[in-house]
Amino acid sequence: MAPAQPLSPAAADIQSLFDRIAPVYDSLNERLSFGLHRVWKRMAVRWSEASPGHTALDVCCGSGDLALMLAQAVGAAGTVYGLDFSAELLAVAETRTRRTHAPATLHWVQGDALALPFEANTFDAATMGYGLRNLTDIPQGLAELQRVLKPGARAAILDFHRPQGALAQQFQRWYLDTLVVPAAEQMGLTEEYAYIGPSVDRFPTGPEQVVLARQAGFDQAVHYPIAGGLMGVLVVGRHGRL
């Protein structure tokens, strides 16, 4: 696992939070999404168009779900880099790699999504799952992702979405307050998971994400609401149709 560069104080606080939740991160995600997070992640991998032989990147890779799915997509001739700033989550990802057959070459890198440690025009495809919302500078994160993608490459960014309908908004608030926070409380992580609601409230809407992506240099950007509008996938690309 490659070493990390120093983070800003705000980013270091978020890094510390994810280090603390690393031991239960996978089990809590499975429980709170009723297993559907894997379906949504597979959708993101398909939208990234990762293909056999590609070099792919998963930013904010966490415990490695998307990176391992990318490894299946790029196959034995491909290479996947999973980057995260949480050493504890990367340790979980490395352990999973030893237990799971991953046909592609996998590299786990501790680093900052706002200053990706890769040369420009490196990757054929990229994903990010539940990471964009936690960046301290979303435009910078998108600009960095655009920088490291090759011309013609795509990235698919999965995250919570602020639904526009009143009923969907009420359901999302009920879900966060009634399911997410109490489940975290049972695991002694009330403070750590209490941040989710406020982070969703201040997260740019799908149309706002499209504007930010274009400002970051992407030629193409489309946001797809999924899961009844509770989640969304921002698909971005350079010099190509989406």
Total number of distinct structural domains: 1
Per DSSP, the total helix count is 10
Run of helices and strands: HHHEHEHEEHEHHHHEE
Briefly, what CATH class? Alpha Beta
Roughly how many Å apart are the termini?
33 Å
User: In percent, how helical is the residue content?
Assistant: 40-55%
Q: Could you say which overall geometry the principal axes of the C-alpha atoms support?
A: globular
Q: Quote the average pLDDT.
A: 85
Instruction: Please give the radius of gyration in angstroms.
Output: 17 Å
Multimeric organization: single chain
Beta content comes to 15-25%
Number of strands: 7
What structural class do you assign from the helix and strand content? alpha/beta
CATH architecture: 3-Layer(aba) Sandwich
| CATH homologous superfamily placement | Vaccinia Virus protein VP39
Looking at the structure, the CATH topology is Rossmann fold
The largest sheet is:
7 strands, mixed
Description:
The chain is α/β, with parallel strands linked by helices. The protein has one domain: Vaccinia Virus protein VP39 (Rossmann fold, 3-Layer(aba) Sandwich), CATH 3.40.50.150. The chain is built from 10 helices and 7 strands. It has a 7-stranded mixed sheet, with helices on both faces. Strand 6 and strand 7 form a beta hairpin.
